[in-house]
Design a protein that fits this description.
Elements: H1 2-28, H2 42-52, H3 56-61, H4 64-77, E1 78-82, E2 93-94, E3 134-137, E4 143-147
Parallel strand pairs: 2-3
Antiparallel strand pairs: 1-4, 3-4
Amino acid sequence: MKKILILFTFFLFTFSVYSQNNNGAIRSSIHFPENVDAPLTEKEKLMIDEVYQSSAKEIVYNQKEYLKDIKHLLRNRILIYEDSNVKTQKKCKLLSQVPLQNTYNEDLTRDTKIDLSNFNPLKYKLDFFANGTYLYRIDNTNYFIQITSQYRKNLKN
């Protein structure tokens, strides 16, 4: 019984060390352009505050790495573009099929009419931190939202 306990402890320790090392390796493989070092813009602050409300300070602003991820997302990885050519439009999920990110703001509502200058992608549970590039179509428009993987090296600066 004592041998089993020692063996179990050894395996638990080994997996724990691997898990810690693996997370650091994944994090270090993300390329952050220089623009993520700049302070948040007022527009970015409004987007964060709309979604996270009173939890924004604790969850985003006080978490240096997560704040950096959000800046990288908003500044480099989200592309909204128009494609009017039916032949080149890709099939993808509609924005209306994506749930709202209303964990911290129960009053968050889905946009019925999209104003691209004020559109807040953080309101939606889009695949922000997945490995691949994801595409969504804004309902009843020719506008698409492309989320590029944070692990790609050649993002716009």
